[in-house]
Amino acid sequence: MMRRKFKHIVILTGAGISAESGIPTFRDKGGLWEKFRLEEVATPEAFQKNPDFVNEFYNLRRKELLKVRPNAAHYALAKLEREYPGKVLLVTQNVDDLHERAGSRKIIHMHGELLKVRCEKCGYVFKTHEEIFTTTPCPACRQKGGLRPHVVWFGEMPFQLEEIWENLQKCDLFLAIGTSGTVYPAAGFVEISRQAGAWCVELNLKPSAMADLFHEHHYGPATQVVPAFVEVLLESLVKDKN
Ligand code: BJW
Q1: Could you tell me the distance, in angstroms and rounded to a whole number, from the CA of residue 186 to the centre of ligand 1?
Q2: Is there an atom of ligand 1 within 6 Å of 195 CB?
Q3: Chain center to CA of 141
Q4: What are the φ/ψ torsions at residue 235 (nearest 5 degrees)?
Q5: Whole-angstrom distance, CA of residue 232 vs CA of residue 219
Q6: How far apart are CA 181 and CA 189, in angstroms?
């Protein structure tokens, strides 16, 4: 790895970082898109056409999320945020809360959060561990039929993009972890940060669709490659001091 002290790190994570916690990815063998057609569960049109089916998909995943735990990769990134003297921003495409449970605090959920629900009638967003149905009233406006998962479907605008862009323009180290590099705008983050002069590193089980754009690659399970990479980053600080 290029040994230097970075001032501003942006980390993008995808489903691969949570795979070893027991949450299926989307596009791998055995992934969610093998069992569900994405057009039937991850678009606003699908929700409009069949809200009960889409709610059931998310109710099921919400229930499964409550059974799993963060893994060594989530903990390593939380340690990096705590111990690294520069700015560390975590941008996740994941809707799970495993980064938070591991201790990460500066985090943007660009594709939303599974444990949050939004009312389309009044805009109220709230946390819940419960199932939601078309018959569930909104706790704020009491209307029925307006609740939906607070996630970003295809064709919808990801959250906090402006803040992400600003950080990508300024960062000097960009890490992409466990993401296939096939869903935009996240897949394009490596190009933006690279053009801004950042050193770009991919950590994944195998090369992603964007692999050629990274300066450095570490392939293997996230629970192994992420903690090892974080240790090297933190050790380089100790060496600098001596
Ligand atoms: C491991 C591992 C282990 C496994 N250790 N690694 C043409 C060009 C450009 C854009 C478009 C286009 N046509 C359409 C679009 C737009 C569209 C898009 O990108 N479509 C593509 C399919 C082409 N994008 C959108 O619609 C987005 N919105 C948008 O563009 O708004 C307009 C806009 C305009 C201008 C500027 C900016 C915006 C919204 C995208 C929403 C995505 N939503 C989902 C569902 C979220 C809710 C839910 O969870 O149900 O988000 S889809 C799904 O894919 C989910 C994920 O966050 C996302 C990315 O998946 P991810 O995380 O990469 O997972 P996988 O499964 O693909 O990969 C796993 C990886 O892990 C693999 O590489 C494995 O090797 C690895 N792995 N085990 C380490 N143990």
Answers
A1: 7
A2: no
A3: 30
A4: -65, -35
A5: 16
A6: 9
Q: Looking at the CA of residue 180, tell me the nearest atom of ligand 1.
A: 73
Give CA–CA dist 81/9, Å, rounded: 9
- CA nearest ligand 1 atom 23, residue: 183
Ligand 1: does its nearest atom lie under 6 Å from the Cβ of 222?
Answer: yes
Which pTM value belongs to this model?
0.97
Give the dihedral of Cα atoms 217, 99, 73, 157; nearest 10 deg.
-20
Q: How far is the CA of 235 from the centre of ligand 1 (A)?
A: 33
Angle, vertex CA 219, rays to CA 110 and CA 165, nearest 5: 25
Element (H, E) at 32: helix 32-35
- Give tens-digit pLDDT for 3-62: 678 999 999 999 999 999 999 999 999 999 998 988 899 999 999 999 999 999 999 999
- Residues 6+ positions from 68 with CB-CB distance below 8 Å: 18, 21, 22, 23, 96, 98
Ligand 1 within 6 A of 189 CB? no
